[in-house]
Amino acid sequence: MRKGYAFLIPAIAAMLLFTGCHASNLSFTAGSYIGTAQGKNGQIKVEVSVDEDSINSIKIVENHETEGLADTALKLIPAEIIKNQSLAVDTVSGATIVSDAIKEAVKNALEPSGVDLKRLSETHSEAHKEKGSAQKTPMTPGVYTGSAYGKWAKGSNEGARFGSPKVIQPITVDVKLDEDSILDVTVTNCDDTPGFKEPAIERMQKDIVEKQSIAVDVVSGCTMTCRGIISAVTQAMEQAGADLTDFNAKTEKRNSTEEYTADVVIAGGGTAGTAAALAAIEKGANVVIVEKTGKIGGMGVCSTGFIGVESSFTKAAGSKVTVDEVFKEMMEYSDWTANPLIVKTILEKSGDTADWLAAHGYKLKIGGYGYTHDTGKGTQKMQDLYDNYILPAGAKLLLETSATELLMDGARVTGLKAVKKDGTVVIVHADAVIIATGGFGGNPEMLERYTGSSNYYLSGLSASTGDGLNMALSAGAMMNEEIFPHLTEFAASTTLDYNSYFMKYLNYGGLLQVNIEGKRFMDEGLCAEQPLAKGASAIRTAGSFYVIFDQATLDTLHTQGFPGLFPKETTEVLKKTILWRGRALVPFTSIMDEMQRAMDAHIACKGNSIEELESQMGVEKDVLVNTVARYKQMVDQKQDDDFYKNPVWLTQTINEGPYYAVRMEPAIFGTSGGIKVNEQFQVVNKDLQPIAGLYAAGQDTGGFMGYPYYDIPGCTMGYSYNSGRIAGEHAVDYSNKD
Hints:
Layout: E1 8-9, H1 11-15, E2 31-38, E3 43-50, E4 55-62, H2 71-84, H3 96-110, H4 117-122, H5 126-130, E5 142-148, E6 171-177, E7 182-189, H6 197-211, H7 223-239, E8 257-267, H8 271-282, E9 287-290, E10 305-307, H9 312-316, H10 323-333, H11 340-359, E11 365-366, E12 372-374, H12 380-390, E13 396-398, E14 401-409, E15 412-420, E16 425-435, H13 444-451, E17 457-458, H14 467-474, E18 484-487, E19 512-515, H15 526-529, H16 531-542, E20 545-550, H17 551-560, H18 568-577, H19 591-600, E21 604-607, H20 610-617, H21 623-637, E22 659-664, E23 667-672, E24 675-676, E25 682-684, E26 690-696, E27 701-702, H22 715-737
Parallel strand pairs: 8-9, 8-16, 9-13, 16-26, 17-23, 24-27
Antiparallel strand pairs: 1-4, 2-3, 3-4, 5-6, 6-7, 10-12, 11-12, 14-15, 15-16, 18-23, 19-20, 20-22, 21-22, 25-26
Helix pairs in contact: 2-3, 6-7, 8-12, 8-22, 10-11, 11-22
């Protein structure tokens, strides 16, 4: 992320335009103009230079976008605006927000110039219509190397948790060029997440060469790796003197239709969809799976465990925990707001499902609570199910294919319609449809409608946009009584990526937290003691909030991490009693750079006094001052009279200026709740009657979870595997009856 990382598309670019590219009948007041717009990670500022009838140059003078991911948009959009003398240029695939922000900033800059902005924004010039036939600027033939960061940015400390190297190196590519063509693209290094990077590498290497374009569609579900590869290719091509606008052709959509017939069609190839497919093919069904992204597994590839009560593994490990004990615990935790029939059904199935997965190659070991089965992260466990069982049995898997609507015969579901990434329409006729599309964490409008806010950082899949829920509603489905965000244990930012760095741990050490009014609002120790079950829901009540601390605390975190704020013996006790995460107990080696980025993006501030900090935050005068004064008094007396925080967290972290305030928001994996189902995972209507032929499983459905999350590891995955398996079995039974 950078400030003032400028790309200059100079006046010479306009000289290269072919005849007819000036915006005829448009007139400007010559000069240079400044415009701004909100990008993905903060403000984008541009300087636009014009003469009487042309846009001559566009310079991006400030941006805070992620290095690598936004580079192509920052270069291409200004170049295309100049080349076409129009704001009506296509966005860059996978960088839509940044592309639109650049266009908006240029539009705002040009407003004082007197030009007809409506025409400039809506009308393509003749040059845009004809540019496909224009002669390309010659390149210097050769092999060039480019590099850029993808999913894991420079300095990220999170990649190792998901199978990437501890120290992330940039994506590197070799690009072979002749005078006017891309001959070959080879990715020589990529440290991005295994399971996600492979589809991106395969597709990008092929498509860029085949389509002679850096504007190829990214692989759904692997956007960040794709954008990193494209940025690296772009960099290599620039070394050869390429005019990037010569290689900016969009992928043309197809006008074709494919039809399939199956016993069962499954929308979604994640955890629940995969379990449903395996269960269905084992009962002899003909199965089609349509998966929106370019990979299988969904969020399940990032998870390490699932519940399996009374499995052979738990018994071998000596666990005496029974289904009835866990049932009582879950129902009491949820105050019986969970559906007891569904909870009981899942738990009774869970031990057998653990054994079932082990029989299909899962390497399991017993983890927390004596009945959580650790599977290890990664795609391979699920990929093996497809390679060894599902696909050999004749199932059809259609990747990058989005389910869009259900086929109906009266009140009965008879299949579904989907659309491939290339525009091909897919029709699947089936006796039964299973919806397993992963909820709606990637749909801000639905989050606002069903959870009351969209002010969350999504650490899950942006491809989960509520497709399944909307299809079910169109068939008359009923919504579950409780629908809520599936909160994560660490706070984040909706502006910058805290999630890949140490910044996300700031609320994990009991430091003072205040709401946007500057008032304390919770027992901050819960963010460390029970970060998922209680801390996350507490910070959700505030929406946006600030963590407050002084320079000495920042310096200590930089060199020692949280252990530097507590006596050694206290740290050891906390590690054993609350399972304090080891990855948050190391030196925050990049925190100084992270803090500077946050301040550049205006989501963190610094003041030499609390009064100055209060002013920087925009808080009403004396509110923060009084909050801090009272908090320091309680720290001194080791007694929290406001929220009764455990005294261990009452450490002196606001002692001497300068002081910092870092704004944070809740983070979510996705959503829980949605479609109402019965214990066979049939979707039910408002009269609680099953909709014929329609099933749903996993995060699309409600009934199993209590808010915010059971204090038991593995519940989400346990629910997904078991609900998918049950839905698959019953869907085949329904198909056979029919």
